[in-house]
Specification:
The chain is of the alpha+beta class. It has nine helices and five strands.
Length: about 200
């Protein structure tokens, strides 16, 4: 009987780990699935321009279009260095409804957690960022070792490069077309309004 309980418990725990890992292999998004306009932002968490987009432009998009059901935004990873790859992994390991608030937190505190001479310094800063945000239940070391998660993030980058010839971040795709204008809200808003 003890052997049966052990085997069942072992399988349950391993299936839960598998489910946890695979539930994190999805795009982070905000908005109505049936929205007429879809925006994909390819971003690197260590990129200052991405932080500006996320902190200044995304809230305006949310107010004017996302919350009204007109637009859905997808945040796609395009890591430019190991620090941004590790940060992307951590964001993906966060529970669903907390992903975007934690993404917000990382962009708002970007100058703080990106300081360090070695990747171990950055990883330690990411651990502090998790704790500061109240996400003490996430095992950073375990998250960073999930191979499927790393493959998912890197494949997203490869697909972005191949499909849209992305060379820098942030790159904005609106309904499968690369936005070529100035990355200012007024220009983005005009492009969106033409599609409504």
């Amino acid at each position: 009987m003890k052997k049966i309980i052990f085997v069942v418990l072992f399988l349950f725990l391993n299936l839960n780990v598998f489910a946890l890992e695979n539930s994190n292999l999805i795009d982070i998004s905000d908005g109505n699935d049936n929205a007429k306009i879809k925006i994909y932002t390819y971003q690197s968490l260590t990129c200052p321009h991405c932080a500006t987009f996320h902190n200044e432009i995304y809230p305006l998009l949310k107010r004017d279009f996302i919350d009204k059901g007109i637009l859905k935004i997808y945040f796609r990873h395009f890591p430019l260095d190991l620090a941004s790859l590790n940060a992307a992994k951590i964001v993906q390991c966060v529970d669903g409804e907390k992903k975007i608030p934690f993404l917000d937190h990382l962009y708002k505190t970007q100058e703080k957690w990106t300081k360090g001479e070695k990747i171990e310094d950055i990883n330690n800063n990411l651990k502090i960022a998790l704790n500061d945000f109240g996400l003490t239940g996430i095992d950073l070391d375990k998250c960073l070792k999930i191979k499927d998660l790393e493959d998912y993030i890197l494949n997203t980058r490869i697909e972005g490069s191949q499909d849209f010839e992305i060379k820098s971040t942030p790159t904005i795709i609106i309904n499968d077309k690369k936005f070529e204008g100035n990355l200012e809200y007024k220009d983005l808003k005009k492009a969106i309004e033409k599609l409504i």
